[in-house]
Amino acid sequence: MVRIILRAVLIVAAGASVLLLAGVWGQNQLSAVPNSQLLLAGATGTLLILLSLSYSLRKRFWKWGSIKKWLRFHELAAVWGTAIILWHTGLRVHNLTGWAAVLLLLALCTSGIVGRYLHMELGRELGRRKQLGEDSSSLSQLQWWRNRFQVWRKLHLPMTRLFLWILLVHVLGTAFYGGW
């Protein structure tokens, strides 16, 4: 159990470090970047994040394509979108909605990394269960992972909805006050 927790902490720390480095690198680059390129980076990162939501649409409405490939696309688009958004901000945000959006985006990305880990462990436990047969110890361990995954989903999905609302407010505020 300690190995599992340690592995999860290492995965989250590695992901957070990569995202933080993207923001620090962006902060060093921002002085030489024209405002139009920063807006383009923000739009690109936002588009990638919105495209990552197609995984949810695939699960609920569409029935084409491999769910594994859609999940992989979701993960990659969300991480790259987050990295581009952090470069866009350079870890310097000048308004409340921007701060809220960046912090919630980082929390969502961290949550996604944790969810990926829980999903992988649940799959491993299912594999172990098939190898061992239907004994009680296998069932209790499987239920433990399922419970953790359900708790994660109950947190990740509302955070995503809240992020999308804050993102909308941020984009509309930037368009209105920023004079696009």
Can you lay out the helices and strands and say which pair or pack?
Elements lengths: L1 H28 L5 H18 L1 H7 L6 H23 L6 H37 L3 H43 L2
Summarize the model shown.
This protein has helices at residues 2-29, 35-52, 54-60, 67-89, 96-132, 136-178. The protein has 180 residues and is mainly alpha-helical.
Describe this protein with a few key phrases:
180 residues; mainly alpha; 2 domains; 6 helices
Please tally the β strands and state the result.
Answer: 0
Roughly what percent helix? over 70%
From N to C, what is the helix and strand string?
HHHHHH
Number of domains: 2
Structural class: mainly alpha
Low-confidence stretches: none
Q: Which strand-content bin applies to the residues?
A: under 5%
pLDDT averaged over residues: 77
Major β-sheet, in short?
none
- Count of individual helical segments: 6
User: Using only CA atoms, what is the Rg?
Assistant: 19 Å
Q: Which of globular, elongated, flat, extended, rod-shaped describes the shape? A: elongated
What gap, in angstroms, lies between the N and C termini?
A: 52 Å
